[in-house]
Amino acid sequence: MNIPIFRLNNKMLKITLIGSGNLGTQLGLSLVKNGYQVVQVFSKSIESAITLAEKLNSKATNDLNQLIDTDLAIIAVNDDNILKVSQLVHFPQVHTSGTVSMKDLNQNYPVGVFYPLQTFSKNTNVTFDEIPICIEASNKSFLHQIEEIANGVSNKVYIMNEEKRGKLHLSAVIACNFSNLMYQCANEICDDNDIPFEILHKLILETAQKIEKSSPKKAQTGPAKRVDKTTINKHLEQLKDKAELLEIYNILTNNIINRK
C-alpha cells in the first residue's frame, strides 16, 4: 500500500476541516491566520459550514462523500461520531479528542491526535499561542509533520500517548467542568437571595490565578481547611432544604478536611 506523506513545506499543505463547532471554528481561524490553507469545511449544517468557510476563504459541504482529498483532515466533531466520520475520510487524518483512541481512525492512512486543551466558544476571540496542544501519531514522520503544524499555532506542544491524554482529559473535566458546576450552584444561591453574582467574580478569578504561583493544595483556604465547625454547621443549616447541594457540600468539605 502506498502511504501518503506530507509535502516538506507545511505551509503549502491543503487541510480539510471536519466540524464547524466551537473548536473547529477557532482552530480553523488560527490555522488560516498562521498561513495554513483550509480548502474545505464540513458540517452537518450547510449553513454552519458556509459561515465558517467564508471566514476561511474555503469551500463548504455537508456531505462527507463530497470531501476533497487533501493532505490532512482535522476531525473536530463530538467523540461519538469520530469513528463514523473517519471511515469516510480517505487521506491522512487527526482527531481533536482528549479521550478517543488513535486506533479508532481509518488505519489505511497515517493517523494521529491533535488535542487542544481549552474550552472554546465560536464568538470569543482566542489566541492559540498559549493553548497547550497534545499530539500523537501512527508513525514518526507523520508525528513530525503534526508537530510542525502544532508549533505553527501554539507555543505549548506536548507529545503524549493515549493513556496520559486520557488522564489529562479527566483532570481537565474535574478542574474545568466541575468547577463551573460549582459556579452554577453559587449563582443559584445568589439568585435565590437577590444577591448579584458579580460580587463573586474577583474572588473566583483570584482563586484561579493563585495556582499559577502555588500548588492547589497550598492555595486551599476556607472553613473546611481551617476545620471551622461553627461556620460549617451554619452552612449545613442553610442548605437543609437543598438535598443535592447539601450532599455536595458535605462530600467536598470532608474531602478538604481529610487532605490536611
Major beta sheet, strand line-up: 3-2-1-4-5-6-7-8
Helix content: 40-55%
- Uncertain segments: 1-8
The top-level CATH class of the largest domain is Alpha Beta
Mean pLDDT: 93
How does the overall form come out from the CA principal axes? elongated
Question: Strand-and-helix sequence, N→C?
Answer: EHEHEEHEEEHEHHHHHH
Q: Over all CA atoms, what is the radius of gyration?
A: 22 Å
CATH homologous superfamily title of the largest domain: NAD(P)-binding Rossmann-like Domain
Alpha-beta content class: alpha/beta
**How many helical elements?**
10
Strand content: 5-15%
Q: Would you give the CATH topology of the largest domain?
A: Rossmann fold
- Biggest sheet overview: 8 strands, mixed
CA distance, first residue to last residue? 59 Å
List the helices and strands and how they pair.
Elements: E1 14-18, H1 22-33, E2 37-42, H2 46-56, E3 59-61, E4 72-75, H3 82-86, E5 93-95, E6 111-116, E7 133-137, H4 140-153, E8 157-159, H5 162-192, H6 201-210, H7 216-219, H8 223-226, H9 229-238, H10 243-258
Q: In short, what is this structure?
A:
The protein has helices spanning 22-33, 46-56, 82-86, 140-153, 162-192, 201-210, 216-219, 223-226, 229-238, 243-258; strands spanning 14-18, 37-42, 59-61, 72-75, 93-95, 111-116, 133-137, 157-159. It has 260 residues and is α/β, with parallel strands linked by helices. The chain starts with 13 loop residues before the first strand and ends with a helix.
